[in-house]
Amino acid sequence: MASNATIFKATLQIADMDRNYYADHAITLARHPSETDERMMVRLLAFARHANEALEFGRGLSTEDEPDLWQKDLTGAIELWIEAGQPDERRLRKACNRARQVCVYNYGGRGADLWWEQNRAALERLDNLTVMNLPWEATRALAGLAQRNMQLQCTLQEGQAWITDGKQAVQIEPHERKRAGELPRR
Length: 186
Hints:
The chain has 186 residues and is α/β, with parallel strands linked by helices. It has one domain (6-178): Restriction endonuclease-like alpha-beta roll fold (Roll). The chain is built from four helices and eleven strands; from the N terminus they run ββαβββαβαβαββββ. Helix 1 (37-50) crosses helix 4. The chain is globular and about 45 Å long.
């Protein structure tokens, strides 16, 4: 965690109807000085969509060999590697070699579309990669929920997410650009 990172605390109540996962999480998020509220909240959304007891945040933007979030098994093998934004294709190729599954939460409107157009051919060859595109309006609205201390509820159903702070609610319907193939269990 960078020494001049801004610390955010979130109490996140998750009701994931798709996975039958219901839990409360006390989360500490370190926002790197170069990170926006939008990116930080996309990381929080990714946590909600994949939440379990083994999922944890990486050390941040300044750490090259760690993702935004990851899940390891008891042996230390990486089961899930999650990136937010528009990561470099070489970074994703390396992640796909290290992790069983890799997921990218792509956002940024036209910039995200350009990133996909430029990297699509190379990324489609990565069998264990999933790329989800988040609508620009939704991620901007999600950034509006960012506070130093947050009390959030997240409901996930049929692939959609609703996140509320009790005053405002944001609906997010990710678009799947690429789905990972089924891999045999290691």
